[in-house]
Design a protein that fits this description.
The complex is a heterodimer. Chain A is built from 8 helices and 37 strands. By secondary structure, chain A is α+β, with helices and mostly antiparallel strands. In chain A, strands 5-4-9-2-1-10-13-12 form an 8-stranded mixed sheet. Chain A has an 8-stranded mixed sheet with strand order 27-28-26-25-32-35-34-33, with helices on one face. A 5-stranded antiparallel sheet of chain A has the order 22-21-20-23-24. The longest helix of chain A has 19 residues. The radius of gyration of chain A is 30 Å and the shape is globular. Chain A starts with a helix and ends in a 5-residue tail after the last strand. By secondary structure, chain B is an alpha+beta fold. Chain B folds into 3 domains: about 270 residues, Immunoglobulin-like, CATH 2.60.40.3140; about 170 residues, C8orf32 fold (Roll), CATH 3.10.620; about 210 residues, Jelly Rolls. Helix content of chain B is about 20%, strand content about 40%. Classes of the chains: A alpha+beta, B alpha+beta. Chains A and B meet through strand 6, helix 7 and helix 8 of A and strand 8, helix 12 and helix 13 of B.
């Protein structure tokens, strides 16, 4: 008897689902939204109900029409969970193009696996993953799920137009909390202001977006899509794995990190302290002391990432690193800081968003989600020095392209300070190559090639230094992908000239590089550095962004062993554009051909119209780089 | 299997595990060990590696387990060798039981001022990651590792898989001075033992250990087999090779026979005839093929009434291809069953292909399953059946004297062709009424791409005309997939146009994109930049008619080659370009025709050109007429590519005079 109402309810529900299905018919999609889209969000509602600091219920309902095979991955649902995040309920269904239900699914249809990536040895994040099995397009997947968050420091953002290939018919984001709750909200590019409703019991914000088109991904676009809609919410008072805090700006945030996560972590055992004293005892200058301690740390430790619970934010103490000889970025920076403390050298634990793309933290909005890495800053007077502590090989005081030129947060006793990491500009990022090469009568080219790499190009061939000769040779064949190239001798050195420099010296032999055709030889003098064109970008919308500039010089001298009837016509070509300059000079003196090529690419942000200039420039550079020359031989006829 | 476990499970048992394998005590000499002869640049070197496998009745589980005891001592020479101190051990699930790991001990020894210090791994620093519902990883890393450290790692893995237990790999990515493996096998069991790889065993010892295995009152002797190798070089992977597992020196065990305590014997995978029978009676294999009634009821009449057998087979193939989506899971056994897969339109490789076989049989076509070991796996054992070697199943369709190979898991694949993952030397075709046999897994169709251009050279310095690219074989499959990654043809064309910066494309026409039985072709109107300005009178300029996909780099660039080159299929790339020259253009010099053929015609490069009535015709082809080349042939291929690259450096030199 008791079953009756439930049954009716289910019956009702399933009818409801089927009726709903009709609204997913393809014909209901506004045609304009189909342009460039692989999938369309038909409707999406994300609801965050913050009942208290330890309890946020995230309820999501979403219907996505997958238009074609290219959109397949947009139908996949990945729900991550860990100790602070549990999946309460999931159900969904799949509809065909006419809106008729063909399948349904629930949590038992999900695959469950750990989400530990390549970087970490261990973390406690897992994922439940669902992928519909549908061969016929279009189809619509509709699902609802509920996730409980037992913290309120990381609240999922609203980013409805994050995927460029997915259009949105309608999306809404709702945040609900107690009326007295103070929130910090950062809303970017929102189509309209939030609707706010307040009652005695709650306060509700609702953002809505409709009819967002898919767009073209454009090469050399700024790191962030200029019109990305984004709402971030951070409560003023937060709880995270039993730690709590109150933060309104970066200063307070840095203070919280310092006081709550770092303060007691520099617990070096006495033996380790003695070691430090031993290392620095004969060194005068603080910078030389820091360098000695940095090298000591590099030899003693290695990078191993273990992230469990609060361990995602809080470092393991210095004693742990001392005992085990390993740690993640947080633990190693904290350890290095402890060593420096012992030498009375003050330093800052700095939060940075690492990666080749230069992402700064948002100065206006203090947020724990900014930053994925920690580096160390030593504020020597007039000589601020930065240390990457996870590398056993990095030269002292060098950051490289992983953390350069961006805003970071130094967490100090006085609170957070926003600092800027050093920039390596196009003039400093050098690759300078010199070679004297001999062309033998059979076309074989032999000689010595010396290349120096510095600035952000320091790392170009850096890793090859440490490989064994077999692997070194294999990698060199990738760097210098020339048919028949052979490396007789390989030598690397690291020197210092206003920053670290890699010097690579190669004795090479390239069989049959110079080809004979009739009574001529054909020479392509630019053996090693042929620039590629950049893709065209029609109807460009985004600005042109060059993340990192550089300067490459290739200066090769070819010695001919055969007499040439006519000297090569001298070439002197200079190309200029706002994004860079190219200089090509070829001339012959006696039996020596001098080849000089210089390419400068300047980092920065340029107007979208300038893309064409850059394209034209690179196209001409590439064509010039490929230039071949026919040299008629002086033969006795 | 169940019978033995039950039988032994109820009896009281005692088994002496014998001495654990143990590493020698650490000595100063371990830090100065000489490995220069082996590989003076090794980032790390194995000083000693020991393994011992025993079979035991584990009382807690009341069932038989295989115990793998393992111990290794490694010298870390450089920072690059630190990865050898990071351990991740896979533990698999068999039935409802996971393998377990016990007695993990790991120590780091450092030598400072002639004193050896020891740092030990603590059990709280050992992590278990639940990678998937079927795989756990036991993970740990050693403490205090530095350049010059010596590390010891020991553990025991207990596995319910007594039938086909872990291989012993003598070779790894770092060199080893010594590797010794002991298998203690109770006389009740008989295993097939196979040695793989090119390296020779230093020693094999065999002795009988009396009464080593006691179950209840009964006692059984064991054979203790000891295999060892010394001075083992590191294994280096190369491009275009089959799975490294085929070449890494290793020893494998698979159970052949088990004797019950009452004296009766049970054979496992002994003869192919037994395997054939086992498979055909297996619910998730033979049982699925028998579901012909189901397919009689679901296949459309238009297919069933076909009289042309080849066409009928093709229609059924296409029907299954488009009906059941492969869920990216391999398998020799059906995961959901063919009926459920057909209804739910999703299944693993066995679901898809057993459904194909059942459907073909339903339509009175002769079709059989073929067991396949996929390409990233090792080749199946050629001598005796090792069922667990196979992880995939495809269909073999007999029409007349021909056996057509079919895999319906790729819906863009041509009928009668296999995706690259299935091409791994040979598979085993399982007939129901006669003994199974080996069948070569290869594609009849060459993977080929042909470029054809017809157009004119314009005095503005551009080539204007029509370019057609035709794809066949696996090239067609890959291209189809690529095109379908774009939401529309327009966007594909746009991307292509933006990428091919020396030309502009328009009016794309793609033929047979979703009809894999016909050649895939794409045609464009193209304008190619040859000269960056107008061609002025009395100037000399270069023209290389091969303006698309010209060979400029050599895929075979190694100085030494150890393993055969396996391309997966025969390959060919052709160009046929015809260019009408404007009035007033004369050819000053042109590349020579060439024809380079490797011995026995196994590969060939041909370049032919002509000029007739101002029409310049260039035909070029590079064909590799075998899928597999041996190590010696590598250097022929290298040279052939090199010659082609050199040949293509030579341009036409043209002169324009408007008199």
């Amino acid at each position: 008897m008791n079953n009756q109402p439930i049954l009716t309810f289910f019956l009702f529900l399933s009818i409801q689902f089927n009726l709903l299905g009709q609204e997913y018919a393809m014909e209901k999609i506004p045609p304009a939204l189909k342009s460039r889209a692989t999938a369309i969000v038909r409707h999406e509602s994300i609801n965050m109900d913050m009942r208290n600091e330890n309890n946020i219920v995230e309820s999501v309902t979403r219907a996505i029409t997958i238009l074609n095979k290219a959109g397949e991955s947009r139908a996949e649902l990945r729900l991550f969970y860990d100790k602070s995040k549990s999946i309460k309920e999931v159900k969904g269904a799949v509809y065909n193009e006419f809106g008729i239900q063909t399948n349904k699914f629930s949590l038992k249809d999900f695959k469950d696996y750990s989400a530990t990536g390549q970087v970490s040895m261990y973390d406690d994040i897992c994922v439940k993953h669902y992928k519909p099995s549908t061969l016929a397009y279009p189809y619509t997947i509709v699902y609802t799920y509920e996730i409980k968050h037992s913290q309120n420091l990381f609240i999922p953002y609203w980013r409805p137009n994050y995927y460029s290939d997915m259009a949105v018919e309608r999306s809404s984001y709702q945040f609900q909390c107690q009326p007295q709750q103070v929130l910090r909200i950062k809303a970017e590019n929102i189509p309209s202001e939030a609707k706010v409703e307040t009652t005695d019991k709650s306060k509700t914000y609702t953002w809505t977006a409709t009819n967002l088109s898919a767009r073209k991904d454009e090469p050399f676009s700024p790191i962030k899509y200029a019109e990305e809609i984004c709402v971030k919410i951070v409560p003023e008072n937060f709880k995270y794995y039993k730690k709590g805090g109150q933060v309104n700006d970066w200063k307070q945030f840095g203070k919280w990190v310092y006081d709550d996560l770092l303060k007691d972590k520099k617990d070096l055992p006495q033996a380790a302290k003695n070691n430090v004293q031993d290392i620095i005892k004969d060194i005068e200058s603080p910078k030389a002391k820091a360098k000695a301690l940095y090298e000591y740390m590099q030899n003693k430790t290695r990078y191993i990432s273990i992230q469990v619970g609060i361990g995602g934010l809080e470092p393991f103490p210095a004693s742990y690193v001392e005992r085990l000889g390993y740690g993640d970025c947080k633990a190693l920076v904290n350890y290095m800081q402890a060593l420096l403390d012992e030498a009375d050298i003050p330093s800052y634990y700095c939060i940075v968003e690492a990666g080749n793309a230069k992402k700064s933290l948002d100065t206006e909005f203090a947020n724990v989600a900014d930053g994925n890495h920690i580096i160390l800053c030593i504020p020597f007077e007039g000589d601020t020095t930065w240390l990457e502590c996870t590398s056993q090989k990095q030269p002292f005081g060098f950051l490289g392209d992983f953390t350069d030129d961006r805003l970071v947060l130094a967490c100090t006793e006085e609170g957070g300070k926003v600092l800027h990491t050093p920039q390596y500009n196009w003039a400093q990022n050098q690759q300078i190559r010199n070679a004297v090469l001999h062309i033998q009568p059979d076309g074989t080219v032999t000689g010595r090639v010396k290349t120096t790499f510095s600035g952000a190009q320091f790392h170009n061939h850096f890793n090859n230094i440490f490989k064994n000769p077999v692997d070194q040779n294999k990698t060199l064949k990738e760097y210098y992908d020339v048919d028949n190239i052979y490396f007789n001798k390989v030598n690397y050195e690291i020197s210092d000239a206003d920053g670290p420099v890699v010097v690579e010296e190669l004795d090479i032999n390239i069989k049959s590089y110079v080809v004979k055709s009739g009574n001529s030889i054909i020479i392509h003098p630019n053996i090693f550095n042929i620039s590629r064109t950049i893709p065209e970008s029609r109807n460009r919308k985004n600005q042109l962004y060059i993340n990192r500039g550089y300067t490459d010089v290739d200066e090769l001298i070819f010695e001919l062993s055969e007499e040439i009837k006519e000297k090569i016509m001298p070439v002197h070509k200079v190309l200029e554009s706002p994004m860079g300059a190219y200089h090509l000079a070829i001339k012959q003196e006696d039996n020596r051909i001098h080849f000089y090529r210089k390419l400068e690419i300047k980092e920065g942000l340029y107007a979208s119209e300038d893309y064409q200039k850059y394209f034209d420039f690179m196209k001409e550079v590439s064509a010039s780089d490929k230039g071949k020359y026919n040299l008629p031989l002086a033969v006795n006829e | 299997m169940r019978t033995i476990l039950l039988l032994l499970g109820i009896l009281f048992c005692h088994f002496s595990f014998g001495q654990f394998v143990e590493l020698d005590p650490i000595r100063h000499s371990d830090f100065s060990i000489d490995y220069a002869q082996l590989d003076s640049n090794a980032r790390a070197v194995v000083i000693s590696e020991l393994g011992k496998t025993t079979i035991d009745l584990v009382e807690a589980e009341r069932s038989i387990r295989v115990l793998h005891r393992y111990a290794i001592r490694i010298k870390i020479n450089k920072k690059e060798g630190y990865d050898k101190a990071n351990i991740s051990l896979p533990l698999y699930k068999y039935g409802s039981d996971f393998e377990t790991i016990e007695n993990i001990k790991a120590k780091t020894y450092n030598l400072t001022e002639n004193k050896i210090s020891i740092s030990e791994l603590k059990s709280k620093d050992i992590y278990t990651e639940n990678k998937t519902p079927f795989l756990r990883l036991s993970k740990f890393t050693l403490p205090d590792v530095r350049e010059g450290s010596v590390i010891d790692i020991e553990y025991t893995i207990t596995s319910p898989n007594i039938f086909n237990y872990r291989s012993w790999e003598f070779q790894s990515d770092i060199p080893k001075l010594k590797s010794t493996y002991i298998a203690m096998i109770p006389g009740l069991y008989k295993y097939n033992v196979t040695l793989r790889g090119a390296l020779k065993l230093e020693d094999i010892k065999s002795k009988v250990i009396r009464e080593c295995f006691r179950v209840g009152g009964a006692k059984s002797d064991c054979s203790e087999l000891t295999y060892s190798m010394k001075n083992i070089p590191a294994f280096e992977e190369e491009d275009y090779m089959l799975s490294p597992q085929n070449y890494i020196s290793a020893i494998n065990f698979e159970m052949e026979e088990a004797q019950h305590l009452n004296g009766s014997k049970q054979t496992y995978t002994k003869k192919w005839s037994d395997v054939d029978r086992e498979l055909m009676t297996e619910k998730n294999f033979g049982g699925q093929i028998k579901k012909t009634k189901f397919f009689l009821g679901t296949l459309p009449d238009s297919i069933l009434s076909q009289t042309d057998l080849h066409l009928k087979a093709k229609l059924i193939y296409s029907h299954i291809q488009n009906r059941i989506k492969w869920n990216n899971v391999y398998g020799r056994y059906s995961q959901f069953g063919v009926e459920e897969s057909y209804e739910k339109r999703s299944g693993n490789a066995a679901d898809v292909n057993l459904a194909l076989i059942a459907a073909l049989n339903a339509a009175n076509l002769e079709a059989y399953p073929i067991l396949v070991s996929t390409r990233e796996n090792s080749l199946p054992n050629p001598l005796h059946p090792v069922l667990s070697d196979f992880n995939y199943v495809i269909a073999g369709i007999k029409i007349g004297n021909e056996t057509i190979l079919a895999d319906a898991s790729e819906n863009l694949l041509m009928f009668g062709e296999l995706p690259i993952r299935c091409i791994n030397e040979r598979g085993r075709i399982i007939y129901s009424r006669k003994s199974s046999e080996w069948i070569p897994l290869e594609n009849k169709t060459k993977s080929s791409t042909a470029y054809s251009f017809s157009g004119k050279l314009d005095l503005s310095g551009k080539l204007i005309g029509s370019l057609t690219i035709t794809y066949d074989g696996l090239d067609a499959l890959h291209k189809r997939k690529e095109i379908l990654r774009y939401p529309s043809f327009e966007e594909y064309e746009e991307k292509l146009d933006e990428r091919l910066t020396n030309m502009s494309l328009a009016n794309i026409d793609i033929q047979n994109l979703e009809n894999p039985d016909l050649l895939l072709s794409e045609q464009f109107d193209v304008v190619v930049d040859i000269w960056n300005s107008n061609i002025r009178p009395n100037t000399v300029f270069n023209l290389n008619p091969v303006f698309i996909n010209r060979i400029t780099r050599n895929p075979f660039n190694l100085d030494e080659r150890t393993y055969p080159v396996d391309l997966g299929s025969k390959r060919e790339e052709r160009h046929h370009f015809s260019i009408t020259l404007p009035e007033g253009i004369t050819v000053q010099s042109s590349p020579k025709a060439t024809n380079l053929t490797l011995p026995d015609g196994v590969a060939r490069y041909v370049y032919k050109n002509s000029i007739d009535d101002n029409v310049l015709v260039v035909q070029q082809s590079l064909s590799m007429n075998k899928a597999i080349y041996d190590t010696d042939e590598y250097f022929f291929l290298k040279e052939l590519f090199s010659r082609a690259i050199q040949h293509l450096k030579v341009d036409y030199i043209l002169k324009y005079s408007n008199e």
